[in-house]
Amino acid sequence: MKAYRYALYRRTRRLRLALFFVLVGWTLVEVLRIKYTLVQQSQPELVALGSEKIYITGLHWNSELILRDAWIAAVVDLANTIGRDSVFVSIQESGSWDDTKGALILLDQLLAENDIPRRILIDYTTHFDEISKPPTGQGWIETPIGTTELRRIPYLAKLRNVAMEPLYELQNEGIVPPMSNGYSPQREATTPQHAHSISPSPQISTTPSLSAMQKAMTCSCNRGPTSDLGHLVKP
Q: Would residue 48 count as lying in a domain?
């Protein structure tokens, strides 16, 4: 009787031990599977662009800090990831008080090292220069206190159109299809008188694939003091 009980105890013990290791093994497999899934979800998915073209454009004013801390590195990395044949970078700077111009010169050098098509405009016209001009009618507003002041939205729209000029030029040449809404602001876009490009003349691939979908990524980076915007008012 004792021998039978001892044999039964040993079999039960072995069964429990086997079940324990099975549960441990199953738990380990589940943990590894979940970890693998989380790692895969956290990694950016690289999607083949095919014939799509990416147009990166930005307006900068007193944005040296964000440029040097993150923006320059991010744009260079993004442009390299997309590839020189599928990307164009257009930057417009206007009247910065800090060293935004120097930061953009650095960006131009880094893009040049990777042969990325680009146009970076440096404009020495300050906001004070703009608000000191005689009112021309369009883009100005009569305030309740009887003064005529420059409207902020039309002013920024003009700078945006300057930054978008290379894209409009491609549309005019038939290389890139027009915007889906039919809007063509290239007629309004004129390079500021005191602006000059620190980049070489843009050399853009004119392969047939460029006529496919294009995407525009825009950024307006305004950082730093704003006291000279006292007469730059919203509509």
A: no
In 3D, which of 162, 55, 164, 68 has the Cα closest to residue 107? 68
Examine residue 116 and state whether it is found in any structural domain, yes or no.
Answer: yes
Please give the tally of structural domains in the chain.
Answer: 2
Residue 81 contacts residue 217 (beta carbons within 8 Å): no
Residue 58 shares a structural domain with residue 161: yes
pLDDT, tens digit, 9 for 90 and up, residues 201-220: 444 333 333 333 344 444 54
- The residue range of the domain holding 12 is 1-43
pTM over 0.85: no
Q: Which residues contact 223 (CB under 8 A, 6 or more apart)?
A: 61, 62, 63, 64, 65, 66
**Helix, strand, coil proportions of the chain in percent (round to 5)?**
50, 20, 35
Burial of 13 (0-12, 13-18, 19+ CB in 10 A): exposed
Same domain, 18 and 84: no
